[in-house]
Amino acid sequence: MRPVVVVGDAATDVVAVLSGEPAPGSDRPAAIRTRGGGAGANVAVHLGRLGVPVTFTGCVGADPAGGALLAELTAAGVALAVRSVPGGVTGTIVSLVEPGGQRSMLADRGANLELVPADVPDLPARGHLHLSGYTLLDPRPRAAGLAALAVAAAAGATTSLDPASTGPLAGYGVDRWLADTAGVTLLLPNADEALLLTGCVDVADAARALARRHPLVAVTLGAEGALWCAGDRLVHRPAPETAVLDTTGAGDAFTAGLLAAWLPAPDGDPAVLLDSGMALAADVVRRPGAR
Questions:
Q1: Residue range 185-201, pLDDT digits in tens
Q2: SS3 per-residue string spanning 188-210
Q3: Cβ–Cβ < 8 Å for 133, 162
């Protein structure tokens, strides 16, 4: 199995699963749990649990929350290239989960914003870089994200990238983002991100448009499954039937499941690759938290 370096955020997720619709100005019972999170760390933990040799690169605060996240990563088999920021505060994400699994997130990225190019390690021979798009979408860690892509290109490594979120992506600027990420091997947007990046109104057309920029594209469609596009070939797979409690981290789980299947078999059957990603995502959405 080829080794992977994941560059991205680590955070504490506070997940509040609401018993009904939000009740502004009043009370609403909820099941509240604290879990490890952060898009990059989620991918790294899943890869480690799947037996993929993986190193996580990011920043945490020099605080108990940061120590807990590092312990969880280590327990999952993830090697660490993490800097603890003196006086920094580990990132926290509050996720409000409504009936049906849809969620709204409140993000305090904390020490994640302190990531700099010097934090990015060299990639091992025949390695792979997975970059969380959040790293590019803020001006402070952006240089580190670009440095990671440059290191991967210099090493001849393959790369994967998730665009992260439509709101920050629109604020960042689609044209700038497309220019920054032009050399990425495997792009992993959700449907809304794919439409935003292309201006298309149909997600299949968006996948084809992105496949003209990247060798491989995998688009998640939520309950509708996922698409794989490479060149002129477009493959759709339905999502497995599952109960949905919380969709937090589903995209990160999909990424890890797909990568674990694709890295040893880059010419593998796209249907198998998509199914591998969706199977792990389906496992995650059945319980609170991203992992």
A1: 999 999 999 999 999 99
A2: CCEHHHHHHHHCCCCHHHHHHHH
A3: yes
Nearest to 123 by CA among 157, 170, 95: 157
Per-domain boundaries in the chain: 4-285
How many Cβ atoms sit within 10 Å of the Cβ of residue 52?
Answer: 21
* Distance from C-alpha of 96 to C-alpha of 60, rounded to nearest angstrom: 23
Amino acid 125 reads: A
Measured CA to CA in angstroms, residue 182 lies from 146, 198, 215, 233, 259 at distances of 11, 14, 10, 20, 20
> 130-164 pLDDT, tens per residue?
999 999 999 999 999 999 999 999 999 999 999 98
Tokens 């995998």 map to which residue?
Answer: 218
One-letter identity of residue 241: E
pLDDT (tens digit, 9 = 90+) per residue, 56-79?
Answer: 999 999 999 999 999 999 999 999
As a CATH number, domain 4-285 is 3.40.1190.20
Please report the DSSP string for 66-106 in residue order: HHHHHHHHHHTT-EEEEEEETT---EEEEEEE-TTS-EEEE
- Tokens 């993000």 appear where? 107
From the number of C-beta atoms within 10 Å of its C-beta (0-12, 13-18, 19+), residue 94 rates as: middle
* 101 — pLDDT class (breaks 50, 70, 90): low
